[in-house]
Known about the structure:
CATH topology of the largest domain: Arc Repressor Mutant, subunit A
CATH architecture of the largest domain: Orthogonal Bundle
CATH class of the largest domain: Mainly Alpha
Oligomer: single chain
Helix content: 40-55%
Number of strands: 3
Shape: globular
Distance between the termini: 17 Å
Number of domains: 2
Structural class: mainly alpha
Amino acid sequence: MPTAPDPSVALDDEIAFALGSASRAVTRRYRDLLAGMGLTYPQYLVMLVLWEREGRTLHELGERLALRSGTLSPLLRRMVAVGLVVERRDDADRRSVRVSLTEAGRAMRPQAEVVASTMAEAMGLGPAELVEFVARLRVLTGRMGSGPWTAAAAALPGEDDGRR
């Protein structure tokens, strides 16, 4: 059985520093790409969820994006103001607000597909590698006990981490 490497206190070996640096670099690239669409990164995430399925409640959006209503509501107000989404009271439950795309919001989807492929290319990842990379990040997030993947923090298919 291989032994674990000696623990290091060197900055270059610190996983949180490497992840943080990578996250900032990726976010900067997204910011540059999304500026041409007139979107911020959080707005882009809302659009992604609505392109998956429109008419989500504010609660559903918050859960899917792991955002609290205090963050999500002002974000949506700005998106309503620029004509990307509309909010309306749910017919069945007047306490709930449903969010849907406008025609302008729907029309942005082809541009978003270019953003996704551009990011994968910038990272040097092919389609299969991208799927595996994202899956590994979800598992890592779940193992750390946060994010929407906490409950699904099992090992990747075919991965033997000794928990079986």
